[in-house]
Write a structure and sequence with these properties.
The complex is a heterodimer of chains A (about 400) and B (about 350). Chain A is α+β, with helices and mostly antiparallel strands. Chain A contains twelve helices and 20 strands. Chain A is elongated and about 80 Å long. By secondary structure, chain B is of the alpha/beta class. Classes of the chains: A alpha+beta (about 400), B alpha/beta (about 350).
Amino acid sequence: MKIHEYQAKALLKKYGVAIQDGVAIKSIDEFDNAVNTLRERGVNQFVVKSQIHAGGRGKGTVYNKNNREEVVVQGGVKFFGSNVEGAREYAAKIIGNILVTHQSGAEGKEIQTLFIAEGLDYKKELYLSILLDRSNSKDVIMASTEGGVEIEKVAEETPEKIIKVWVEPGLGLQSYQARELAFGLQLEGSAFKDFTKFIMALYRAYLETDATMLEVNPLIITNDDKILALDAKIGLDDNALFRHKDYEALRDLNEEDPLEIEASKSNLNYIKLDGNVGCMVNGAGLAMGTMDLIKLAGGEPANFLDVGGTASAETVENGFKIILTDPNVKAILINIFGGIVRCDRVANGVIQASRNLNLNIPVVVRLQGTNAEEARQLLTDSGLNLIAADTLQDAADKVTQALAQAV
Amino acid sequence: MSILVNKKSRVLVQGITGSEGTFHATQMIEYGTNVVAGVTPNKGGTFFNDSVPIFNTAKEAVEATKANVSVIFVPAGFAADAVIEAVSAGIDLVVCITEGIPAKDMVNVYDHVQNLNRNGRSVRFIGPNCPGIISPGECKIGIMPGFIHKKGKVGVISRSGTLTYEAVDQLTKLGIGQSTCIGIGGDPVIGTRFIDAIKLFNEDKDTDAIVMIGEIGGNAEEEAAYFIKKHVKKPVVGFIAGRTAPPGRRMGHAGAIIAGGKGTAAEKMAVMTECGIHVVESPADIGKTMQAALEKLNAKKLKAKKEKKNIKKAKKDTKKESKKVHKALKKAAKKVTKKKK
């Protein structure tokens, strides 16, 4: 689960991690209040930061929501110093418009929240992140003197500038490891001390929030040698949500595709893509394999949809509805490897859904497992545009044929 | 005939009275698996299906029934605890079917098992978020449909569930049986990785060839591929699901994500091909590619057999020849001595 910068900072603050202060606003009317609140906390320089679930905001472009051709302003993050008027003007301009960054995709994301934050003077930008190293099943802390740029770029061009420390699960992060990182970052004096405290608190936050990824880029050394998170990105483990009931409030549905939200309500795992062949499959691996098969058959997958290992008639109908909402879909491939699931039941679900939804595009149905023969008969006898397929290759061939007819 | 599990496996089912546990324990027993015990806290002293004794703890179950494999069907919030309970009770093979376990919990389980193994135990856990393990005709531990399998000599390893069934089904329909099929699971932290399973299949005399089915995310397939290049002479057929998956999205499995441009299907397929694995583009081609690989292998074996035979014959001939020569020489020598006399 992704969350916004301002939410990540609020989480970190609870664990005593030094962060850039700020107030999130959802409307320009809240701007003055936010500035006043920050002033009361001693802040006299201001930054306006767009809150969207994509990186590269500072270098992004803001487009008019009603006229996507029109560039409103360059940059989704701006520093205004003590110029509150300028900050207000900029904030009013961008809120409600679309920010496109190199990570957001061409369609961009609507800026619905702004983080009005304290402007800080600093002498150095650093990089720091914690994530799971899948190759040895341990958490790894990565730090670099090259802050403010993408770590993938650093890894590619100057990998020697990335310092890594692995945490032993039974022991936790040790002080010597914190020092190792601080030395690696060439810190000294009070910044050194401050950093070791910072990383200890940050690792605790990573553990206790059940984060899968925690990235602070940049981590800054202020002019008075304090270490502080200027930006913060946290990915939370979806599998751990059951023990963090409060995270539900952090989910921003505006950041998600409406179809994906609809699907998740029926416990379907759906991801919207740009292709012309919809698919519905049981199991994630087979679903990905089926998408690949569609591509090889001459189509483009319109979605990923896993209806779960044990597909029922009801989930199949719900899945059908979701796929058909996508106007780009010219054909559908249903691939259910039943095994223990009874195929005739799934077939009945498909037939029922096709009738209810007035289906008018070809649907290739491949059901394998218990009662597969009966299922094929049911499909063929239905009188609907349902094409029964036998093997995976047969299904692929029939998708190719269906596409040829659709064009 | 198989790796890790066979007819002798004595299986304990943790979470046997839950809906998943009940259903699949029944299926396993029907398949012929020797289910010797179940564990559900507070249900100790009762019986499952009037025949399998249920215990409160894994420890009691192991002491009473000598169970040596455990399969876990308990909910995600309690599954990590269940794995540790099983290994603490002395079980050396734990198969965790449960999906949705927090990654942090599995990091701790993995570390605990590594520590036990450093101290002389040899514990292995499979999964989580996996279909389990089956040695066809002998023992099924997990949720896979037993009837699609056939006893034979191909080992199957996969991160996926239903895609594995698809591959197995293709093999079986071509008459190619399997020695053991292992679903290693779709999570980022798993107990048995590709490389571990490949090592076992490589050492198994009754496994002739291997199918490995990977997917996007992580680099476990590459790690296994380099091992195969160096150590495995058996033919390996590979497929990677997710060539069409968009970066940055989690494709159903917690571990199936292209992160920071790493873990793509293209990357994995390239490394696997380079390491001599028969990589298929389409999941529909897994069976027939294995068939071709086996035919080649059998032709090679036949040729080797013939050559061996020829060499044997040649050796025999030379022996005969040398015997003849020897005899003739002896005769000649006798003649000479006679003449001398």
